[in-house]
Amino acid sequence: MKGTIGAIADLLGSHRSSAGLRPLNLLGFGVVLVTFVAASSAIFHLLMVREGQEHDWFTGIYWTLTTMSTLGFGDIVFQSDLGRIFSMVVLVAGVSMLLIYLPVAFVRFYAPWVEAQFKTRVRTRVPADLDGHVIISSWDDVAEELVERLALSGIESVVIESDPLKAASLHADKAPVVRGGLGVRATYENCAFGRASLLLANAPDVVNTNIVLTAREVSERVPIVATAANPEGEAVLELAGANHVVLTARRLGEQLANRVSVGSARALTIGRYRQIAIAEFPIRNTRLSGMTLEDAQVRAHTGVTVAALAKRGHLEPGLPDTMLREDCIGLAVGNVAEVEALNGYLSEGITCGGSVLVIGGGRVGCEVARALRGRGASVRVVERDPTLRESIEEVANDIVIGDAADSRVIERVGIREAASVVLTTNDDAVNIFLAVYCRRLNPDTIIVSRVAHPSNVEAIHRAGADFAVSDSQIKIQSVLGALRGREPMIFGEGLDLFNAEVPRSLDGKQLRESGILARTGLAVIAVESNGVVNPHPRPGHVIRRGEHVLFVGTASQRDEFERVFK
Length: 566
Fold this sequence. Notes:
Layout: H1 2-17, H2 26-50, H3 57-68, H4 81-121, E1 134-136, H5 141-152, E2 157-161, H6 164-172, E3 177-179, H7 185-190, E4 198-201, H8 205-218, E5 224-228, H9 231-240, E6 244-247, H10 248-258, E7 268-273, E8 276-282, H11 293-296, H12 298-302, E9 305-311, E10 314-317, E11 329-334, H13 336-347, E12 355-359, H14 363-374, E13 378-383, H15 389-393, E14 398-401, H16 407-412, E15 420-423, H17 428-441, E16 446-451, H18 457-462, E17 467-470, H19 471-484, E18 496-501, E19 509-510, H20 511-514, H21 516-520, E20 523-529, E21 532-534, E22 542-543, E23 548-553, H22 555-564
Parallel strand pairs: 1-2, 1-4, 2-3, 4-5, 5-6, 12-13, 12-15, 13-14, 15-16, 16-17
Antiparallel strand pairs: 7-8, 8-11, 9-10, 9-11, 18-23, 19-22, 20-21, 20-23
Helix pairs in contact: 1-4, 1-6, 2-3, 2-4, 3-4, 4-6, 5-19, 8-9, 10-14
């Protein structure tokens, strides 16, 4: 259905752009068509009589229509050259009238009617009882994933689309679309902006400014999250009335830089839930490398519970016999003091190299370099475009102009000695290639990569990247954080924190026998009961109806939990 609607939308779009097409008179066209068929049938009889063949009038009409429509069954044919010439005339005329003029006439006269039908199919106002919903100003990859994530939390969403044909296509694809102009106050009134939980302005900076100003005329209370492509846009959007402005390049750069170990190994607090802190910590270049979780005694020394290990986007449980491998990242849960104790435990007598290689000197690459320099790292940036040299020199210790895919360049910049490599180009194919290349040249380096499209996450992990994060992940987590009144939680790409009530099928079962991880891939990190969070549930902990389980995993794994456990 989506493909049909899209094809019709394209047809109507081309109709609307062909203003120079002269209108055709359908009635006149019909008269010409009937006259031509009648005249051709009469000539058919005359020529057939001349050749000594006898046919009735119905056969003449039949022959004319089959010839005009190019079917040409061949059951009735002329024998003379004059008859064949006449057949070609009818054939060419038929092609012109039935295959060219008729479709053009249809589009010209019936397209407005079809477009009007599309318009009536898409709503222009949300239901009167809709409350606590999220309004999204533009449909894109971020909006599509955000709608799904909100649905998992039981939050409804509304997407605004001004183009009636695009709105019809989204409606056919079951998207929660409302037709209206982004710069029109009535649109936000029709979307019940005053009763909404949040508005996401995810259009270009100039359009976002108009969105924020217009929405603020309807309500000053509802939070607005706006995305910005550059610092100037960030400042203007804040002045316009946005509560949170997501400068994607900066936040993405900071998140990539946070995953690079510089100096002593430290745990990174990636989020907080009520009274607990959730942190990631590296295994590589720490005292834990090569030990089992039981031998490491992390909880005994620090108080935190190692709930799971993440290896390139996949989770495994933190069991006593779990091996702490260098290519894994630990996921720890505890209070703030316990996480700080983990930092001291990780860094005792061990320091990580401070040499970092950043490939890609665009906005994200410069933000990575700036963040790493602030932590005392030595940063070398590789960039193909010589026009970016000046901006890169402001944030990097060293810059090399050249193509990192060239073996001479990558060897010259010291790939074999680099403690960490950060891939920041906006081309996933290039990042995947470079991840494979860098991993082959330096098996022990930590590779952190940007991902432009979330669908390429598995590919970048297969290529050898230890950690990946996308622009869309930054935006989605910023919205979810603002909605929940907390800082965004940026786990590995695709991973998130979920909260679910204990279903009937798990009531009275121990965590070790629940099968949550084995059957869904979700890693349980805490159990919440009456507002109190237990970040250290033992495998023998019995979960009860009314309690909530907190776990980390992907949205699809959360869907699987809902399907498996009822």
